[in-house]
Amino acid sequence: MPELAEVEQSRRIWNVGLGEKVLEVIVPRPQDRVFRGVAVSHLQHGFTGKVFLDSETRGKQMLFRFGRRGKVWLGLHLGMAGALRTEPGLLEIRKHDLLVLRQARRYLVFSDRRHLGRVLFHQGETPPAWWTRLPPPILSDAFDRDAVAAFLGRRKGAPLKAVMLMQERFPGIGNWMADEILWRSHLHPAIRGRSLSNRQITTLHRTTRQVCAAAIGAMNENWEYPETWLFAHRWEDGGRCPRCHSGLKRAIIGGRRTCWCPKCQPVKR
DNA sequence: GTGCTTGTTGGCCA
DNA sequence: GTGGCCAACAAGCA
């Protein structure tokens, strides 16, 4: 589930614990692959006794800052099925709970049903390199039309669907957002980057920003989107295009399940 | 049992 | 070296 908007929503779930100290770090499965490359003992020592200061997201990455003067950093990636939650009172550890920060009045829990997520840790005055080296966010000035055009030029042989999923240029875009953007841009997901006109590149750039900007506010409490979005119809059998009511098509494109409207997104335009 | 899955990575090949 | 493709990772679900 976690793409840009869901990651942002997830990050905020832990906000209830802001300004409060971590009393204990619980790692039920220290050998789990989400900790690959991280010494779990450092994690435990690092956060115990530190105050939860703030957090932010970039694309699908989350960064949480702890310590009086911001010295300890926790990075989380939700992978395919990661989730954050808080639990008041006594915590009953569930099967896929991987990292638990205990505070006086609640537990902050990271769980991951499929264990494809990632936990990162850093101690130091400044944010870690794995954070500062992330590509420029889609809603930043650095994500301009020229950057998109250059990237499409380089990835000229790959289907648009695959290009949209490349985090190095489209950080935060996942499977459903890629389909949503291509649908709104009237671009078939299997088109190769090389065959886009200048006007189509402009449209793709603009639409990418629009969908990212709208996604966070448009999501309801069940993590769903309005009926006018392709999102609301893409998984249902017999789903229809919310714009022209044609039957939607689904196939594997760029190695991923893809949904598009054959009428709004013809192969040739 | 089979065949999927909202993500990422590394190996293979052209 | 670069880019495209795909299996693997792990677990749940239909």
Notes on the protein architecture:
The chain has 269 residues and is α+β, with helices and mostly antiparallel strands. The chain has 2 domains: 4-132, N-terminal domain of MutM-like DNA repair proteins (Alpha-Beta Barrel), CATH 3.20.190; 145-260, Helicase, Ruva Protein, domain 3 (Orthogonal Bundle). It contains 7 helices and 10 strands. The protein has helices at 4-13, 40-47, 129-132, 145-154, 160-164, 175-184, 198-218; strands at 24-26, 52-58, 61-66, 72-77, 82-88, 97-102, 106-112, 118-123, 249-253, 256-260. The strands form 3 sheets. Strands 1-6-7-5 form a 4-stranded antiparallel beta sheet, with helices on one face. The chain has a 4-stranded antiparallel beta sheet with strand order 2-3-4-8, with helices on one face. It is elongated, with a radius of gyration of 20 Å. The two termini are 32 Å apart. The model has no long low-confidence stretch (mean pLDDT 92). It binds a DNA duplex (14 and 14 nucleotides) through residues 1-3, 6, 33, 60, 77-81, 96, 112-118, 154-158, 162, 165, 167, 174-177, 235, 254-257.
Q: Keyphrases for this structure?
A:
Helicase, Ruva Protein, domain 3, alpha+beta, N-terminal domain of MutM-like DNA repair proteins, 25% helix, 269 residues, single chain, DNA-binding, 2 domains
